[in-house]
Give the backbone structure.
Amino acid sequence: MRKFISITLFVLSGLFVASCTDNSGVRPEPIQEEWSIVLHGGAGGKSEMPAEDEEIFKIFLNEALVEGKTILENGGSALDAVQATVIYLEDCPLFNAGKGAVMTSDKRHELDACIMDGSNLMAGAVAGLTDVKNPIKAARLVMEKTPHVLLIGEGASHFAKEQGLEIVPNSYFTTEGRVKEIEKLLSERKQGSPMGTVGCVAIDKNGNIAAATSTGGMAGKKWGRVGDVPIVGASTIAHNGVVGVSSTGHGELWIRQSVAHDIYALMEYKGMTLKEAVHEVLWNKIDKMEGGTGGGVICIDATGDIVMDFTTKIMFRAWAKSSGDTGAAVNRTNPEEKKI
Amino acid sequence: MRKFISITLFVLSGLFVASCTDNSGVRPEPIQEEWSIVLHGGAGGKSEMPAEDEEIFKIFLNEALVEGKTILENGGSALDAVQATVIYLEDCPLFNAGKGAVMTSDKRHELDACIMDGSNLMAGAVAGLTDVKNPIKAARLVMEKTPHVLLIGEGASHFAKEQGLEIVPNSYFTTEGRVKEIEKLLSERKQGSPMGTVGCVAIDKNGNIAAATSTGGMAGKKWGRVGDVPIVGASTIAHNGVVGVSSTGHGELWIRQSVAHDIYALMEYKGMTLKEAVHEVLWNKIDKMEGGTGGGVICIDATGDIVMDFTTKIMFRAWAKSSGDTGAAVNRTNPEEKKI
């Protein structure tokens, strides 16, 4: 991943500040009510990122943040905010979702996404998409236009086409970095670490919580492997009055522990704070499981408090609150964070 | 479903007592240690089943029960017991899993299954299988032979073939009753109720809990719709020391509420008994959600206590404990059951 970052950043940094930014509209004054938003662009790594690379990544993370933050400032819904943010991250080739997704063992892309609305516990998800430009849009339409939660494979693509979503050739998702990555993995007969999933959680001025997650999954995956991303309760959850969660990491661990629902349940049934619940699940459960490469979560509770935590070396993340607290980071900013 | 049952029972009852039963071996004396097993063959219906039909169904439910019970009596594992029981139910054309599965809107079969081992929280699942005779065997192999939890579609089939599982043409799963059902649904432009999923939960003499679920999903489903069955934490869970759950019902509700993990969490974090937790989730959550057709769960706690509850009129079920308590039922046996 480090090599990919280094190669890609030089090529893409100029391009993306231009192409992923929409500064055309005049933004009205923010409404003075409370909201919060947090996003991630994946977690992983065996070492911290050099400061100069981190600074470049923060440009993109902040760009993505603006997408959702603007909606919340203007009184829009958490649901629209998380979707807009994830669309930016899907379109940005630096992350493992949409354009720039990792490749399967047969050098294709299979994409998963999930979205949940905490106001009514409605949810939509897709798995194994190969030709829908923005899987998170398909997930949203599954939630709103069908009686279902999860559609997979060709059927999900047919639905997306019926709904008029933009269809692209599978090669649209490919980047030079991902081709090099898969060729290296195949030559070493390995699977990659599941790094780079994207997600967003928000609470809007009405107290509605939403969460969304999108991914290309695990580089070198085969047999139609699906991770935690399209699994409500594993990667993603939103329950008004309690918490919203989006995850990134070793999906199999997340499924086996129902991580997102477990954080919800520890708060709702055991009375833990968000920070305590996240610590319990990430450090006392996930980090102690054998064979995993860990990962991270981003969460917002009903008061708008944000928790971002990860068992890996880095997690791409950015956040903003109506109070003015905002930022972006890749490396761990507080070495004591895990020792609550 | 009533018509299908009536038509099918006359034709199949004699046949199945013969073909699904394996009485060839001499069973050794049971080991005198505690175990429990419970199975379901789906829940649904708008009215109770006539007593004479119920009696015939109980023959098959008891036959399925013998498969798992024998393993537990002889000191086998809960994992082997739930798998053997589900294989019987998949092979039996009366239930919506394996042979006899419902048909999709294009008159095919797409099968899902999940298995979980409470001793180590390992799990395996498959979704959208079209040609593997016993999807539960594929789920077990995903758990034991891959680093993954969930495989879908063609990839899952390729894996099953690599593992040497029996492959069948899609038409193998078709029964006359299912053809009539889908033709009626298509002519009325409806989807069927998701009735007939099968599942089993067991605790063995070592205190290990396992759970397994298998289904053809919702009759008339389209767009690659997948319900709760392959979703760990939605339909199925097994955590030693707490609970095992297998579900049947309107899968979308189960996914949105993470039903199986919610029952676990209410017991583990809120100190509820199994009966209280099931009541809370089924009657205070699922039954109050709009647009759903309900369903049921079968559960075993760490002491071997069994709870079977359902918000529908009927649930096909059977149970046995080392204490000698055993039985099978379709209609509700205790009208006060829901008023804990």
The first helix of chain A runs from residue 2 to 19. Chain A touches chain B through 45 residues (CB under 8 Å). Residues 33-331 of chain A form a domain with the Glutamine Phosphoribosylpyrophosphate, subunit 1, domain 1 fold (CATH 3.60.20.30).
